[in-house]
Design goal:
single chain; alpha/beta
Length: about 300
């Protein structure tokens, strides 16, 4: 029985690392990346699939993350291994290197373990403001530890889920990548009981904080995209704001509504990749739901990571 479980676990790790997090998650083929980055990606996959991390203590290791310190759990998921190798969401991360300047106000919506908040603080030399929004209590615990170990003063953590209304909602924790309102395969694998979390509208939070200018919004909310954006329409209509996010809509109707909402806020939308390419139609965007299943997935043709900015 134990050998069967080990074989199944090995197969699961391989599929998760190769099919989903290499060819599917990032939305580009390996050959699209610089050689050294592609090699690091392969090394990251090998390290995870080989189960080498399972031989290490089950703990968070304090590691270098783009010049900041971050506690990274190498056992939990391929994305954590990618962070250790410095290739997690490589294209989006490099774009932040170009965009982030000292003194900015940046929102990290769906902060996970705080990796992007740490990057923003590092790039701004701790001179600016980062508002990190994360509903998962365990993630928030590690965000606080990451802030403390770097002694960053500019990161402000909000333990809540952003949505289109004030109140509360059911949250399904996963392996650090939880989901609001409905469970997902990742949350089921996490085997954690659902919890109730506070929901806030972004516009209301910023009004309370007396923040009138937001420069960059980073967003990755595992399918709650429209809920967050509907609660942030005033902020999105601001003249100078840019939005970098993962698209996780679950139907063609949601995809169309998402695209129209960004257009109504005067955004020009681009695909984040080897180069920025304009997105002119809603059906170019990533679709994560039942309507995707009847047709083959051409991963390099779907756009998950987008950069939305206002024309000059």
């Amino acid at each position: 029985m134990a050998s069967v479980i080990r074989r199944r676990w090995s197969k699961f790790r391989f599929l998760l690392a190769y099919k989903y997090f290499l060819t599917f998650y990032y939305g580009e083929r390996l050959g699209d990346y610089p050689l050294r980055v592609g090699i690091k990606m392969l090394l990251s996959r090998f390290a995870f699939v080989s189960q080498l991390p399972l031989l290490l203590p089950d703990k968070h290791f304090l590691m270098n993350y783009y010049g900041a310190k971050m506690y990274i759990d190498l056992n939990s998921a391929p994305v954590m291994m990618d962070m250790a190798f410095g290739v997690y969401e490589y294209r989006k991360t490099k774009l932040f290197f170009d965009l982030v300047k000292e003194g900015m106000t940046i929102l990290d919506i769906g902060a996970f373990k705080g990796n992007y908040s740490l990057l923003f603080a590092k790039l701004m030399h701790d001179r600016g403001k980062v508002l990190a929004f994360e509903p998962d209590p365990d993630n928030c615990n590690w965000i606080r530890k990451n802030i403390q170990v770097n002694n960053y003063k500019c990161i402000e953590l909000h333990q809540c889920a952003l949505s289109d209304k004030e109140g509360s909602a059911t949250f399904y924790p996963g392996h650090g990548m939880g989901k609001l309102l409905v469970p997902s395969p990742c949350t089921v694998l996490g085997k954690k009981e659902p919890i109730t979390v506070q929901t806030r509208m972004l516009d209301n939070v910023l009004n309370e904080e007396h923040i009138h200018d937001v420069h960059i919004i980073k967003m990755d909310v595992e399918g709650s995209d429209l809920l967050v954006l509907k609660g942030a329409e005033h902020t999105l209509k601001s003249k100078n704001v840019s939005l970098l996010m993962d698209v996780d809509v679950v139907s063609n109707a949601e995809r169309k509504e998402f695209f129209e909402l960004l257009n109504s806020c005067s955004f020009e939308i681009y695909r984040i990749g080897r180069e920025l390419k304009p997105i002119k139609r809603a059906n170019e965007l990533f679709l994560f739901g039942e309507e995707l299943k009847p047709r083959p997935i051409k991963t390099h043709q779907l756009v998950r990571e987008i950069y939305a900015t206002k024309p000059e």
